[in-house]
Amino acid sequence: MARRREKLPPDRSKALVAMTVNGERVEAPFEPHKTMLEVLREDLALTGTKHGCELGECGTCAVLLDGKPVLSCLVLGLECEGRSVETVEGMAGPEGLHPLQKAFADLGAAQCGYCTPGFLLTAKALLEENPRPTLPEIRQALAGNLCRCTGYVKIFEAVELAAAWLRGEAAEPRKESLYGYDFDESGLLPSHPGPVGAVLAAAREAAVDEGGDKPRPYRAKAR
Amino acid sequence: MSSRRPTRIVGRPFTRVDGAAKVTGQTKFADDLALPRMLHCKLLRAKVAHARILAIDVSKALAAPGVVAVATGRDLPVPFGILPVSQDEHALCPDRVRYVGDPVAAIAATSEDAAFDALDLVRVEYEPLPPVGTIEEGLAPAAVPIHDHGDQGNIHKLVAMQFGDVDEGFARADRVYDNTYFYEGNTHLALEQHASVADFGPDGKLTLWSSTQTPHYVHRALAKVLGMPASRIRVIATPNGGGFGGKSDVFNHEIVVAHLSRVTGRPVKICLTREEVFYCHRGRHPTLMRVRTGVKKDGAITALHFQTALDGGGYGSYGVASTYYTGALQTVTYRVPTYRFEGARVFTNKPPCGPKRGHGTPQPRFALEAELDRIACDLGLDPAAIRREHLQPANSLTANYLRVGSMGLGACIDKVVAASGWKKRRGKLPFGRGLGIACSSYLTGAGLPIYWNQMPQSGVQLKVDRGGGVTVFCGSTEIGQGSDTILAAIVAEILGIDPLDIRLVTGDTDLTPVDLGSYSSRVTLMTGNAAIQAAERARELIAGAVAKKLELPPERIGFAEGRVFDVENPEKGMTFPEAAVAGESLHGTLGTVGHYRPPPSAGRYRGAGVGPSPAYSYSAAVVEVEVDPETGIYAVPKIWIAHDVGKCINAALVMGQVEGSVYMGLGEAMMEEMAYRTDANRNVVHKFPSVLEYKSPTTLEMPEVETFLVEDPDPNGPYGAKEVGQGPLLPIPPAVANAVYDAVGVRVDEVPVTPEKVRRALKAKAQGKPARVGPERFPAVPYPEPIHVRTPEEGGDGKAEDAPVTAAGGVR
Amino acid sequence: MMRLPRFRYFAPTSVKEALRIRAGEGESAAFVAGGTDLYPNMKRRQQTPKTVIGLSRIPSLARLRAGADGLRIGSAVPLSEIENHRKARRLFPALVHAVSEISTPPLRNMGTLGGNVLLDTRCNYYDQNYEWRQAIDFCMKKDGTVCWVAPGSPKCLAVQSADSVPILIALRARAVLASPGGEREIPLEELYANDGIRYLTKRPDELLTEIRIPPPDGWTASYRKLRRRGAFDFPVLAVGAAVRREGDRVAESRILLGAVASAPVRASRAEAVLAGRPLDGASIREASEAAAVVSRPMDNTDFSFLWRKEMTGQWVGMALGDLSRGG
Ligand SMILES: Cc1cc2nc3c(=O)[nH]c(=O)nc-3n(C[C@H](O)[C@H](O)[C@H](O)COP(=O)(O)OP(=O)(O)OC[C@H]3O[C@@H](n4cnc5c(N)ncnc54)[C@H](O)[C@@H]3O)c2cc1C
Ligand code: SF4
Ligand code: FES
Ligand code: FES
Asked: Which end of chain C is more exposed for a tag (fewer CB within 10 A), N or C?
């Protein structure tokens, strides 16, 4: 932590501030009255961090500051001098998506995707502290992030799934969370490459069923 | 449903095609865009609810540091509006302001700070006019009406229609009920605040990126207001950070930044603050309702008389349609043999109301479902059974000429009744705990476009390149609902490839054929059908070429797993890219188109344009509540919901839409409110335009949801699919109110159902007064004599009797 | 985007330095700890200090110690640190509960106890953007002359809304204030005045350095908060209650109401009701009724003020009920 004190010039002149962003050391010049949200989006071109109120009331702008979720709309850029900031852009590694990212994508926990970066980072901090959170613990940890699209259900499920993956378990999404309860699957063909013969046989069935050689507006054959 | 064609991709819960971009922060929303030399715009908004503008002085602002241009209403005099009948908005108010927040001037400066600082330097002189704050005030004679259009005084729209012999229906009834209800206004609160970037290039062409659900309508309005040929304007809908109907109007700021870019020759951006988003509004209309219902002892409805009065706010917006919608869909769930509807919308000096998820129908749905609960309890019937036994049949015409196709409501009711233990638990839980049921239906796309034309509502172009790449071009916009994924799924299904291999270009008026926009749950059905047509045409071309190469008849060619092959001998064939080469070699460049136009409506009376849809979705929900009678505070631990979606194109997306709708419905039911201060001595202001005080449920309020997807395929839907994005919201508010009744025996006939109201009703009950909280009376509304339409059962032909009928029956 | 106005920023590393900067900058300077109260207010132009003095780099303010003399919490200790502090949880579970009810988890990683204790009073005519306040012609607390909540009122009626305060006072906490003239320690309740504008008795140049809570010594406490949602929302009614029993009788009690006035309100009549009696249904009911009398919520928060008033007795009863069970 830097120990020296800042005395920054007023008005338009910019401060040059050194910090770590997504593991990389950066020195960014920005106006001293800017919040971290503005610095990230406008001065560092990291627009993955979103905003929905800029007053601390929605959680959309959450980033990790020294590993802890904070609201970037209320953190002064200057306050981050010498500290470490993690944004959604820093989550995926060379191995690909972070398990949380993958789980969010797979389950549809990101609908419009606007609240997603804030949720991902808050959840990441949770799982780093508590690898096996209960549902009430997940609800509590994410209580500062609003989502207007998902009703949170898929988000909870995605956090549970990612937690299992991070623990090294070979977990799969629950069937009920993908199809609901009592879903009638008889209308579906196997979609994942199984034994070639089976797949092709199914394909043949479908193709024969379709037949026809004229372009036509589709009509379900149900009735 | 046994002969349903099995599918491989359609129906599966595969990962959405935009999922990876969204979880990595790569999706570019409008405010994420930055262009070189870009200016920033701020709007100066009215601080008075109703006033004439006497003078505006912008000279000081123009001289302020960093300010490059200032615009006022004089610069943009041409009016616009989403409906052709209500062209009553201006990009900047020229002579009158109609609500606190109405924009009067715009500043473009080199930074947002500079633009903000300059706002204070604009001087506006107003002559205050008396503000109108409530529905009652709006119905009263007006000295200075808010608009010079509308049906009378501040009444924007009056509607009255009668289907069948309603008087006879009431006469036949064993009981007649008469109750009033109120549904408070609420707003979308999409987390993304509206943003737009305009770039007027040196070639005289304008590009606007905007968080809009309806790029096509924005395109038309820009051409009109800017006086530019539409061919020189390009509107690109950026992915919306939530829409819910709140981004389906044309907004002032979209036109203003376009104008400022034209004036300055520089890109101009605006991103509204949360407060400004509250002023854009276009959310749920506060609606007063009176419901008269005639029923037989077994709960069969003999006549229904529905009156509504809507608080429209300061402008027309979609309001004429909203007014009709408060009367349109009452008939598609339970049999209503005779029906009378009277609706009115008044102008008030508040931000304009418009379409929010369920557009105009959650309010009457609340009233109808609460009414049915009352009736069932009064007649000693099971509220689930009274619904189940009187369903509107599938493949039927309603009294108001809506054509119901597939109808899975019965199955939906059965699912939630069984899962919730309804029969054993309803009415039998300890005092303070209760279950409530409600059902609903919603459109799968409105039958008519909002401006009258004969063209398709949706178009798709498809390109197959010789590398096997498939690109789909469509005007639809991704607002989170998954429209891109649906397009990809359908094309992938037909061409036998992976959805993730398909490139999508959407919501760009230069590059994509028109789609009317992401509203009224129309996208899956309409773009889906258009995509099927385009993809089948491409398949046809490729199959022909491959057949020729393999020397087989084209019927023998199958498409699956990235291969095109002989279905009799699957090993014989080629990869999809090879097939594309064969296709291009034979036919030349491969490109196909598809389009969709909904079937014409059966009704031919004036107003028949609102309500018809190619298909109706159905939902049923059971809500459990725990009420503390000492405080009125209640919790919702669990909700069971079943939704008839016709057919899932992507089951996981359907689940997400159902859960999201339940969430939003619960927010409306319990706490969300667009509240105003109307203290006449001061002003009419939004009570608290902030995310903190506009109460949106958090992770801690969201109950456990048990969802059932019911598939009753509709012949009009792609693969039988119907809507899911809006319908499942509708049963939640009435189910909550009905559950509160089951728990503590009081009726809250008002949304939101707040603890204060529950407590007040309980106190009234304890004092021996009616155990209810709700509007005491319905105001006197000068509804006109209704048009009379004989019902199909009475041998009607869908035309009004002795009343002028427009050719299209449309609302124009 | 809501943005901060321009200001000069200092980040001193010691209390002395902070006080010196404050002395140099004068009235137009503000201290900031977590900024979760000050920055939203600045963005809404409710407060527009020319100079902001950050306290986050002063190590002595970030210390949290438990010892024989109780708990000493530096004013700049983040709320989440108190939540996670083992000793604090064991000794003062009611305080930890109150802190965990403040806003949201990310906000509690930023907001501090000192900032909470000094939280500006709230009112929904005041916690609004500049433009909105302009539309209602401003009010007495900032830029105007009238109180819109009660236009006849000679003083501002904005609401004491900090969760930690009622329970800290119930726990007999003391505040340490530093100024260039030296340090003084006062009972926390003496920090507050029932005036929405001058809600603190401390001089503007005084820096709050520490909150000291004496050891429990037989006291047990409870905190109950009323709000619409389980997160984000400020209290619109709060009760901090503590009792010390001798045998099964109440020897002493402290009952504090939050969010019903501009300062925390001591329900002395209710305390008197309990004195010498066991905590049972009857005494709790009587005490609750007595407490409700002094609850005078105004119409400037979420929920209707009549209902909040009606709920006061309920909430006091709930807090005392916790004590009768947990004691
Ligand atoms: C959306 C939202 C919800 C909230 N909900 C709650 C809630 O439920 N309950 C609740 O109690 N609070 C709530 N808060 C308010 C606030 O976040 C907390 O009270 C927090 O503890 C304030 O601490 P801070 O360090 O961030 O304060 P700051 O903003 O840093 O400071 C607050 C005030 O104290 C002054 N100050 C700070 N430290 C010192 C010091 N050491 N000496 C002298 N002056 C000082 C500052 O000048 C400022 O005036 C909420 C805030 C937001 C934005
Ligand atoms: S109580 Fe009155 S003076 Fe104080 S902030 Fe509210 S309106 Fe303004
Ligand atoms: S943007 Fe809403 S909390 Fe930061
Ligand atoms: S996914 Fe849209 S707000 Fe959460």
From this structure: C
Please list the rounded mean pLDDT of every run of 10 residues in chain C (327 residues).
96 97 95 98 97 97 96 98 97 98 98 98 96 93 95 96 98 97 97 98 97 97 98 98 96 98 98 97 97 96 96 98 85
Say yes or no for a CB contact (<8 Å) between C303 and B756. Answer: yes
Distance of CA C186 from the midpoint of ligand 1 (Å): 20
Confidence of residue A222 (pLDDT cuts 50, 70, 90): very low
Same fold, B19-26+456-596 and B158-187+283-447+603-773: yes
Going along chain A from its start, the domains and CATH numbers come out as: 15-90 (3.10.20.30), 99-169 (1.10.150.120), 176-220 (no CATH)
pLDDT on residue A190: 58
Confidence tier at A1 by pLDDT (50, 70, 90): very low
Going by C-alpha positions, the residue among C194, C229, C224 that lies closest to residue C284 is: C224
Contact B47 C129 (CB under 8 A): no
Helix (H, G, I), strand (E, B) or coil at C319: helix
Query: B629 CB near a chain C CB, below 8 Å?
Result: no
Contacts of B689 in chain C (CB under 8 A): 128-129, 132
Predicted TM-score (pTM) of the model is: 0.95
Nearest one of B723, B764, B788 to B165, comparing CA atoms: B788
Q: Which of C15, C226, C207, C237 is nearest to C115 (CA)?
A: C207
CB A154 within 8 A of CB C137: no
Is the pLDDT at B318 greater than 80, yes or no? yes
B186: closest CA among B363, B365, B446?
A: B363
Any chains having at least 3 CB pairs less than 8 A from chain A are: B, C
In whole angstroms, give the CA distance from residue B131 to residue B683: 7
List all residues 6 or more positions away from B301 whose beta carbon is below 8 Å from its beta carbon: B293, B294, B295, B334, B335, B336, B337, B390
- Provide the residue count of chain A: 223
CA distance B143 to A221: 61
* CATH of range B33-129+191-242+247-280; options 3.30.1330.200, 3.90.1170.50, 3.40.50.300, 3.90.1150.10: 3.90.1170.50
pLDDT for A192 beyond 70 = no
Cα-only R_g, chain C: 20
In degrees, rounded to 5, the angle at the alpha carbon of residue A100 between the alpha carbons of residues A94 and A104 is 115
- CA-nearest of B535, B606, B549, B533 to B582 is B549
Q: Delineate the domains of chain C, giving CATH numbers in brackets.
A: 1-57 (3.30.43.10), 59-118+159-213 (3.30.465.10), 220-324 (3.30.390.50)
Between B23, B691, B706, which is nearest A116 by CB? B23
The mean pLDDT of chain B is 95
The string of pLDDT tens digits covering residues C16-75 is 999 999 999 999 999 999 999 999 999 999 999 999 999 999 999 999 999 999 999 999
For β-strands B433-443 and B569-575, DSSP reports them as: unpaired
Bridge-partner residues for C72, per DSSP? Answer: C65, C212
Task: Compute φ and ψ for B359, nearest 5 degrees.
Answer: 5, 95
Domain B158-187+283-447+603-773 has CATH 3.90.25.10: no
Q: Which amino acid is at B788?
A: H
Give the number of other CB atoms < 10 A from CB of residue B368: 27
In chain C, residues with a C-beta closer than 8 Å to the C-beta of B275 are: 129, 131-132
